[in-house]
Design a protein that fits this description.
The chain is 40% helix and 21% strand. The chain is of the alpha/beta class.
Length: 237
């Protein structure tokens, strides 16, 4: 591992720790109306994408970069993917331990640098990342991770990408990843995408002062959506 990469990974861990110490504990609780509406919107969009894929979910092999506490992998299990076909990689030890506590033992979990996770080339049908690249401030580290993810994919496989596309001036620990950057990270991929998710600071205010249904009203305005769900397809050979 290069010194530059080691420094960036350490900085990511420090940024997460700093944010955890300053954000209210229930900021991402599913009991908050803006959180469950954001989650359900993303789930519906992702399910529509996966419903169009050939084959049976039980046969798909999926790896998640930045699996956190395991929430997305649990969703994949409910969808019908087999535990032994799932892999998760997590940089932060406390999140890795949380994922290990809730996921079946057959799910393969790795702690540390995702680009060095040891997944075999051409072994995965799907590689998932959710708000990971926006936490990487180094272009070189972003590129290295994207190249590793692309290598893991089988021909005909796809990267499932969910991340925000605009900068948050109140949070310098993250940066938006516009669609043009996604194209540059995966130049050989066939990209399709859609905008989702009412800007979280606005969503929190809307759901605090207005009925929960107001989320959908504001979210119907495309330029208020700050995230992208993208599918980056690897061509068949």
């Amino acid at each position: 591992m290069t010194q530059h990469k080691q420094q960036e990974l350490q900085a990511i861990a420090e940024r997460y720790a700093r944010r955890a110490a300053t954000v209210e504990p229930d900021r991402y609780s599913l009991l908050r109306p803006e959180v469950w509406q954001m989650l359900q919107e993303r789930q519906r969009a992702l399910l529509r994408v996966l419903a169009r894929r050939p084959g049976r979910p039980a046969d798909w092999r999926l790896a998640e970069v930045g699996c956190g506490a395991g929430g997305n992998l649990l969703e994949m299990l409910r969808l019908g993917l087999a535990p032994e076909h799932l892999s998760g990689i997590e940089l932060l030890p406390e999140r890795y331990e949380a994922a290990r506590a809730v996921l079946p033992p057959a799910v393969r979990l790795s702690l540390g640098d995702a680009a060095q996770a040891g997944l075999e080339a051409g072994s995965q049908d799907l590689v998932l990342q959710s708000t990971v690249f926006s936490s990487i401030l180094s272009d070189r580290v972003q590129q290295g991770l994207a190249e590793a993810m692309w290598t893991w994919l089988k021909p005909g496989g796809a990267v499932l990408w969910y991340d925000f596309i605009v900068d948050n001036p109140r949070n310098r620990d993250v940066r938006g990843v516009p669609v043009s950057r996604v194209r540059a990270l995966f130049p050989e991929g066939q990209l399709s995408w859609q905008r989702l998710t009412l800007a979280p600071p606005l969503a929190r205010r809307v759901c605090r002062y207005l009925p929960p249904g107001a989320y959908g009203v504001f979210n119907s305005i495309p330029w208020l959506r700050t995230h992208v769900l993208a599918v980056i397809q690897k061509q068949e050979t």
